[in-house]
Amino acid sequence: MQTDLLQEARRQAEICNACRYCEGYCSVFPALHAERAFSDGDLTQLANLCHNCRGCYYACQYTAPHEFDLNLPQALADVRQDSWEDLAFPQAAGRAFQKNGVLIALATVVGFALLFWAARSLASQGGEGFYAVLSHNAMVAIFLPAFLFPLVSIGISLRRYWRHVGAQPLKPAHLAQAFRQAANMKNLKGGHGDGCNFEDEDRFTHARRAVHQAVMYGFLLCFASTSVATVMHYALHMPAPYGLLSLPKILGLSGGLLLVAGCFEMIRLKLRSDRNLGASGAFGGEIAFIGLLGFVGLSGLVLYALGQTALMPPLLALHLGAVLAFFLLTPFTKMAHGFYRLAALAADAQR
Q1: Which residue from 182, 177, 163, 154 is spatially nearest to 350, judged by alpha carbons?
Q2: Residue 97 has pLDDT above 70, yes or no
Q3: Is the full-model pTM beyond 0.85?
Q4: Distant-in-sequence, close-in-space partners of 129: CB < 8 Å, separation ≥ 6
Q5: CA dist., res. 303 & res. 310, Å (int)
Q6: Kind plus residue range of the DSSP H or E element containing 197
Q7: How far apart are CA 276 and CA 201, in angstroms?
Q8: d(Cα 220, Cα 218) in Å, to the nearest integer?
Q9: Residue 261 contacts residue 214 (beta carbons within 8 Å)
């Protein structure tokens, strides 16, 4: 990891530890105040506990023009971003995609191109619905490796993280506490429960917490839709296509709507926020990935609406191409922060 980023975060953490004005604002400060000296692993853990709500920055009396020049949200964001790149597997992919929106866009285009090629070369003969364009076996052959690779990659990365921060063997109670905090976005409620001032110094709001929940639960509903359809296909011998009131469609539609609305609002909030309080140089990569995730949801909804028309084949290729790019890029983009955040909360539960 970059020594200069860690040194600056250490300097600021030591000042915050002496001041303690922000005690109780979020999970970062109890963990910070429990230490007297900060190893590289301690700083990485603090950085991944931080949700970048920025309340501590606006409350701080030592920000510029004070000579201490504290900007803890940015210092921790830089360490956090660097940790995702350094701990990624393979590391080169993490460094390429984390901050580079152009590479994310190119990877998406490649994903689209592969699906268009697959639709032409592996076209189904006599299948119904989507399987008339791409057979079920072809879809499995394409997406099973694309689903398993991110799981392996993230698993290796989290193992590296756990060792780096010096966490103890994981207990179910600690993991359960981490899931509870992640489910209700506890650390985005703000120090006094009024929300965070991510958009504006003087405006406290729960908007950022709400859009994070919309994206998270929208994604989980879409994943549940695919999982239910898989069970119906293999265990119940009920292959697609499914009706509008079927469980896969209900889960997928509600998840897609939440995903699109959450991603759109998240981009709007980021555009209104102060970029100097986030990770240096990561803004383009974050916007590109949120846009990709939103496009996955939007293309799915359009496919639902126009799935019985002549536009279905190209729409299917676009949607599956976006899904393919999303899965392959998950370990190396902003999406990885959810896994690291959960690991950080579980490690913090041991404290």
Answers
A1: 177
A2: yes
A3: yes
A4: 240, 241, 307
A5: 11
A6: strand 196-200
A7: 13
A8: 5
A9: yes
